[in-house]
C-alpha cells in the first residue's frame, strides 16, 4: 500500500505543481488555478507560522509514507525532491526555494490578472 501511496503522491503533487504554474493559461482551469495558488500561498505562509515557511500538507503526508518505506533523509522542499528525482542531480536547496517562491508569486500574479480580466469581460457581456 505504501508503494502505491508513494507513487500516487509523486504524480498528484507533481500535477498540482503543473496546475499552479500553468493553470491560469486555459480559461477552463483559471478559477481552480486561482484557488489552488491561493491555498498554496496560505499554506506556505499562514501554516508556515507554526510548521515552518513553505509548509505543504501534501509534502508532509508524502514524507510520512516514504518514512514507512525506509526513506528518512528527505529534503524539506518537495520541489528539490522532484528536481533531484527527475534529473539525478543534487540541486542547491536555497536556489530551489528562491525559484519556487518566485514562480509561485508569478503564478499568483498571472492567475489574478487573467481571472480579473475574465470577470470584467463577463460583466461587459451582461450589460
Please provide a brief summary of the model.
78% of the residues lie in helices and 0% in strands.
Distance between the termini: 55 Å
- Structural class by SSE content: mainly alpha
Give me the Rg, rounded.
17 Å
- What are the secondary-structure elements, in order, as H or E? HHHHH
Which quaternary structure do these chains form? single chain
Uncertain segments: none
Compute the average pLDDT.
96
Largest sheet: none
How many DSSP helices? 5
Helix content: over 70%
Q: Would you report the number of β strands?
A: 0
Identify the overall geometry.
elongated
> Could you tell me the strand content as a percent range?
under 5%
Query: Into how many domains do the coordinates divide?
Result: 1
Description:
The chain has helices at residues 2-22, 30-51, 57-68, 78-87, 93-126. The protein has 127 residues and is mostly helical. α1 crosses α2 (30-51), α1 packs antiparallel against α3 and α2 packs across α5. The radius of gyration is 17 Å and the shape is elongated. The termini are far apart.
